[in-house]
Amino acid sequence: MRITHVLLGAALAVIVNSPAEAAPVTFTKLTGITGGSPAGTAVYQADLSSVSGSIQSITIQDNSSGLGGATGQFSGFDLDAIVLSTTNCADATCAAGLGGLAVFDFTSGIVFTPGTQRVPTDPKLFGTGPAGNTVDDSVATLGTFDGNSTTAIPGAFGFISLGDNGVISFNLTGPVSTTGLFMYIGEVGDNGEVAASSVTVGRDPVSVPEPATFALLGLAFAGMRFARRRSPN
Questions:
Q1: So where are the chain's domains?
Q2: pLDDT single digits (tens) 56-84
Q3: How many other β-carbons are positioned within 10 Å of the β-carbon of residue 188?
Q4: Whether the predicted model's global pTM rises above the 0.85 cut
């Protein structure tokens, strides 16, 4: 079993291509709410000035462990929008009105690993592409605080659900100086999911796992199952 753990750890180390020198981010909740119709998005601000130099990626991971929030395709952290700006906003209305820096590519600059759904499950998480492992920004619209705070279909619009323990990384179009820089993210439903997530910024882009990496992970799990069958009672 010890050998199995080493193999599995090696596979995961290859898959999780975290940006070097990643730094955790602390958020402050702004007053008021914003969003689409119905409007129920809470906005959180992080002052990135404490991170010296520049950043090239932002990663959000849901850590809810299946607690709180909705089920099925709406499981996990529901992200309305993410914006970088040098404007210091005090409330959600101000943040929603920001143009933001044009440093996001919501079409091809996202690395998304969907989390699990709570039963009853759906074919894929809300706001994702056909296979459920990409972002459909025509639905998620992650550059705008316009999320409809509802799980009704039709009706839900303007956000992506990460799933339990899902991870989404944004590779910026180039290095962005953190001097006087603020990050704003929107939490649909204002139900405290930001508190059950971790957000980091990185000095390097996040790379996309190669197909061979997933094969390695499959071998690791196969090895673990074999070792369990061979283990004495």
A1: 1-17+209-233, 19-207
A2: 999 999 998 777 789 999 999 999 999 99
A3: 32
A4: no
